[in-house]
Amino acid sequence: MDQAILIILAYLVGSIPTAVWVSKKIYGIDIREHGSGNAGATNAFRVLGKKAGAGVMLVDMLKGFIAVKLSLLSSFSWSSEAIVNLQVFLGLAAVVGHIFPIWADFRGGKGIATLFGMILSIQPLVAVGLIGVFFLMLYLTRYVSLSSISASIAFPLFILFIFNEPEVSYRVFAIATAILVVLTHHKNINRLITGSESKVAMFRKRRFRRDEE
Which residue segment(s) compose the domain that 93 sits in? Predict the structure, then answer.
């Protein structure tokens, strides 16, 4: 299958607005009108609670994973470098779809979970390490945003120093990802500094409130 078609398919997979559909179908609201206004897993945890947030995160990760696996449909013969390049482009297309979903008026989330799914598909061991960093930070701090930032910063450290990934494109991607995640979370960082960032209630039940901001 042609690369352009695969990239379009990856974008469409990434465009599935998990948080928007869950919030509308189950809770009767549009999650983009609550909390931070983002249609991603972090805001789903904040607004809808841990069960819905975990479900949204899982599906959003799956979007990135499936998008990368679309490379298996390619009819070309690839070198290892070319395969990694195609997988990175497919994963990024899914992330773009998550951020600008065609199925939800191009208003999505920040793409962190989809990025994790993409990494899981390309480098499973790296992804397992990042997920470990994420949940350790979540357990210690209860901040989803801080957990995402920590895992993203750990990404290039794992690639460059622990797994010593040989592909230059993947190394550059890992560094760029860490920088991008920090930049896109500047509001969360400000709230963390001022102590106004919302925490996740991990071990107690939480009821959804329609008037929650």
Answer: 3-194
Asked whether residue 142 is assigned to any structural domain, the reply reads yes
Q: What is the pLDDT of residue 42?
A: 82
Nearest to 101 by CA among 53, 181, 31, 173: 31
- The per-residue pLDDT for range 39-53, each reduced to its tens digit, is 998 889 889 988 999
pLDDT of residue 12: 98
Answer whether residue 203 is part of any domain: no
Q: Looking at residue 31, what DSSP letter applies?
A: G
Cα–Cα distance for residue pair 76/192, rounded to 1 Å: 47
CA distance 102 to 39: 13
CA 163, CA 99: separation in Å to the nearest integer?
29
Q: Number of structural domains, the chain?
A: 1
- What is the distance of C-alpha 169 from the center of its chain? 20
Cα–Cα nearest to 145, from 40, 72, 18: 40
Cα–Cα distance list, 69 to 59, 62, 66, 92 (Å): 15, 11, 5, 13
128 located within any domain: yes
